[in-house]
Every structure is written in C-alpha cells, then in structure tokens.
Design a protein that fits this description.
CATH superfamily of the largest domain: P-loop containing nucleotide triphosphate hydrolases
Order of helices and strands: EEEHEEEHHHEHEHEEHHEEEEEEEEEEE
Structural class: alpha+beta
CATH class of the largest domain: Alpha Beta
CATH topology of the largest domain: Rossmann fold
Number of helices: 8
Strand order of the largest sheet: 6-7-8-3-9-10
Distance between the termini: 44 Å
Number of strands: 21
Number of domains: 2
Strand content: 25-35%
Largest sheet: 6 strands, mixed
Length: about 350
C-alpha cells in the first residue's frame, strides 16, 4: 500500500485562481521523492498541505490509508525541515533539538538520549552547548535536521533546506541527507528548484509547472526520455537543444540538412531535440552552427552558437580552438535524438527514422 496518497488535491486562495488543481500522486514507504520545478509552480504549497500548514481546498490526503485533511500538523507524525532553519537564537543546540519533544511532554531523560544519539549521527556532539549564532550555516542546517530526526517521524518533509548554503557545502549536505534517509528507513519528500539536488538525491522526481505534473520518473528517466518540451528544457545543464524542423513536401529538414525520417508522417510539425553531450563537432556534416560563445569548464568546453537563428550548444572535449563567428559542422547519432510535437509539445514516442 502507498504510504501517502494525494487524490484530486486543490488549493485556491480567496479571490484568486487555483494554485493546485486536481493533483494526484502516490508515494511509497521508504521513497525519497523530490518535487522539482521553477519558482511559483506550487511545490512548496503541496508540501505545506501535506504537513497541515496549508488548508486543502478540495480533495483528499491519505497517510497509511487514513484521511488527514482536518488533522492538525502535530497529529500527522510528520517532521519538517524549513529553508530558514527556524532555530531559536536564545536556546542552545541541545535545547533547540529537543524543544519539539519537550512541548509534547516527553520525559527529560528520553529527550536527552534522543538528542545525544542524533548529535552523534550529525557530528554535533561538540556543539550541544553552543548557540545558533555561533554556528556556521552548515552546522545550523544540521541542527535543523537533528530537530527533525529526534521526532522519529514516519515522514520527513524538506522545503529547500540547502538553498542558503554555498555550493561546496550544498554538495556535502546532499550526501548527508541521503545517507540519513537510508539510515532511518524514512519516507522523504524534498522540495527544490535546483535540478542538481533532484538528480543526485531522488529515487523519483515529480516535475511540476503551474501546479501540474509534467513528468514523474527516476532521474535517469526524466533526463533521457523527457515527456515534453518543458521537461527537456528544464532538466539538464545546459538544457536539451530544441530546433523546430522544416517540412517541405513531406520531407523534414534541420536547417538545410534533410533528415532520413519515415515517409508516412504527413505534415506533422516536429521539434528536433538533442542533449549537448550527444552532439559533436564534425566539419563534414551538413548541419552548420555559427559560434557565439565558448564556455570553458576545464575538462570540457561548451560551445554555444546559432543554428539557423536558434540557440544550440554542444559539449566538446577536444583541444580545438574556436573563435566567435566561426562556422562549424555539427554531427549527432540518430539514437540520441528526441522528437516532440510542436503543437502539443509532447514527446513523440514512435520511432521516426527510416
């Protein structure tokens, strides 16, 4: 049985359009699920409705098969980690971590033991007597995690918990959170707009836009087989190249290069998609790109340019020197190409090659 079930969930504020409409999602016990999407897509609102911090306008939220809609947050056996840590500045680390248990009337000795155990896991043992103002951002984030851990909840909700940390510390904390998730055999829902976090942490990613699910899948699935052009352009750094194809007399052209597609496609408007790492420099290829910018990343370079006025990027590991305004040929293998319908923007699943 699914641990969490969201059935036709709606969220509408007074005198405003719906933020979430008829949202359905099931989450299995033990999953690390990431809600990923741009700012304003509804991911944090969904998380807060699961936590009980936002009222559900319509629909049902079930946990272990039991309706949760009218239960207050403290009765949902859920722990939440916020973006701003929400630590009490006048309390020590130990008291911050144990405060939630104290408010529930738990025995002092039990609280002390739980806090001590959590501190060992999070390498906070030497900081229990310190105050938040004396801690680094990473240490404060660990305290916030520790406060959630001591509750020993069935479900952990995390709302962009790493967004205030620098890039290096975020990478360390990503690993620590995933390790904690596995150690506790917990069920975690994690909200982020950072696709690197989603791709490196998730068992399953739920990609959202304007309150709607665009795709659900493993990191590999959403990267290799994006179900629409939004996912294709949102996932990947740099994102997938998307170029509308020209159609003349039933034949398809990428710039001036004819593609060997099947003859029975009619006049279906198509978009050609390929990842930057699947394109390569081939000056003998009929597809030409005018170089506009070279992004040197050390081991690799991203060569940016224009293909018939459309932006295009390829990853190049050679030692070749490129110049702005230089024209280069672009090659690719048919197996790495994705096709999308220009009108619906959905992926065309059928094999279109001859």
């Amino acid at each position: 049985m699914d641990l969490i079930e969201l059935k036709r969930i709606n969220k509408q504020y007074e005198n405003k359009e719906k933020v979430i409409e008829d949202f359905d999602l099931n989450i299995k016990k033990g999953d690390f699920t990431v809600f990923l999407g741009p700012s304003g897509c509804g991911k944090s609102t969904l998380l807060r409705m699961i936590a009980g911090l936002e009222k559900i306008s319509a629909g049902e939220l079930l946990i272990n098969g039991e309706l949760q809609n009218d239960l207050p947050p403290k009765e949902r056996n859920i722990a939440m980690v916020f973006q701003n840590y929400a630590l009490y500045p006048h309390m020590s680390v130990e008291k911050n971590m144990g405060f939630g248990l104290k408010m529930r009337g738990i025995d002092k000795q039990i609280i002390k033991q739980k806090v001590t155990d959590a501190a060992k896991i999070l390498n906070l043992t030497d900081y229990l007597d310190k105050f938040p103002g004396n801690l680094s951002g990473g240490q404060q984030q660990r305290v916030a995690l520790g406060r959630a851990i001591v509750r020993e909840s069935e479900i952990y909700l995390m709302d962009e918990p790493l967004s205030n940390l620098d890039a290096k510390l975020r990478a360390v904390m990503r690993e620590e959170i995933v390790t904690l998730h596995k150690q506790m055999a917990a069920t975690t829902i994690y909200v982020t707009h950072d696709q690197t976090e989603a791709m490196t942490m998730a068992d399953r990613i739920v990609i959202l836009n304007h309150g709607d699910i665009q795709q659900i899948g493993t990191p590999k699935e959403v990267y290799q087989r994006p179900q629409n052009m939004f996912v294709a352009s949102f996932i990947g750094i740099p994102p997938m190249n998307l170029i509308p194809l020209k159609n003349h007399d039933g034949k398809y052209y990428l710039e001036n290069a004819e593609l060997s597609l099947k003859d029975d496609l009619g006049n279906q408007p198509l978009v050609f998609g390929i990842r930057p790492e699947d394109a390569f420099v081939d000056n003998a290829a009929p597809l030409k790109m005018k170089v506009t910018y070279i992004e040197d990343m050390g081991a690799d370079r991203y060569v940016h340019g224009l293909v018939n006025g459309t932006k295009f990027t390829l990853r190049d590991g050679s030692n070749n020197d490129y110049q702005v305004d230089q024209e280069i040929g672009v090659g690719f293998t048919a197996q790495q190409v994705s096709f999308f319908d220009q009108v619906s923007t959905n992926r065309v699943e059928a094999n279109l090659w001859k």
